[in-house]
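Hi Prof. W.,

I finally got the Universal stress protein prediction working! I wasn't sure whether to trim anything, so I left the full sequence exactly as given:
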Amino acid sequence: MSRPIVVGVDGSDGSLAAVDWAADEAALRGAALRLVYATRWIAHQLQAVRMSHEDRAGEAEGVLGAMEERVRSRRPELAMTAEEIEDSPASVLLEAASRADELVVGSHGLGGVGGFIIGSVGQEVVTGAKEPVVLVRPDYREDPQGSPAGARRRVVLGLDVTDASDELLEFAFDHAARRDAPLHVVHGWNAPFYHRHRADPDPGVQSEMASALARAVRPFRDKYPTVKVTEESAPGRPAAQLVEAAADARLVVVGRRRAASGSHIGSITHAVIHHAACPVAVVPHG
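And this is what came out:
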C-alpha cells in the first residue's frame, strides 16, 4: 500500500492551491491525503505569542475544517486525515514528509514583479526532505478530472545526462503516465570553450549530447511505453531553457542531490523554483 500524500496548510492562497494539487495527486496514486497544520507558523509568531492555547487551537481547527471541506467537494472518495501539530512549520513538514510518498506546499507570487518566493520554511523543507517536494503556485488551476487550465498539458523534466538519476526519471515518467500527459525532457549544456563563440554549435558535440540524452531516457521509454516523450538537447543556460519550457507545462521536475552532510539547492533548481510559471517538483537523489 502506498504511503500518503502530505500537504502543509496555513489558510493562504498558496496553501489552497497546494491542497487542490495534493488531493488530485492522492486520488491518482490511490493514496490517502494527510493535511498538517503547524501551530507555530513563522509568519504569525508574534500573534501566536499573544493568543491563548485555546485561540490557537480554534484557529487551527477552523483552517483544517475548511481544507477538509475543500477536499471533500473536489475528491469525495479520498481517504483523508487532518492534524494540528504544535511545532515549527519546517519541523512538522519534514517529519511528515519522512512518512509520505510526497510533500506538497504552497509558494507565494510576487505580483507584477515576476517570479515566486518560498520563504525560509519552504527553503528548509526543500533542502531537507528525503522525499519529493512539490511547490504549488497560488494561481494553480486544474479541474478535478485532471484537465489543466489552458494548454498546460505536458510534464517537463530537467535532466543532466552526466548525472541522470533513476529517481528523477522515475518520478517524471510515473507522473506523466498517471496524468496521461506527454513528457518533454530538456538537457541544456555548455559548449566547449573553443566552440562558444561560433555562430552554430559544433555538429559533432551536438550529436554526442543528443545521443547521451537518448541513452539516459531509453530505459524509461521502455518501462513506460504509453508515455509520449520528446527530447531536447541544446547548448545554452539550462535554467533559462527549463523556465521557458515550463511556460506551457503542468509540472516541471528538477533534481536535488542529497549531500553527505547538510544539503543545498543547486543553481538550476533554485532558478526554476523561483521563476517557473507552473508547479515545481524537487526530487532528491543520489
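The two ends are 25 Å apart (CA to CA). Does that look reasonable to you?

Thanks,
D.
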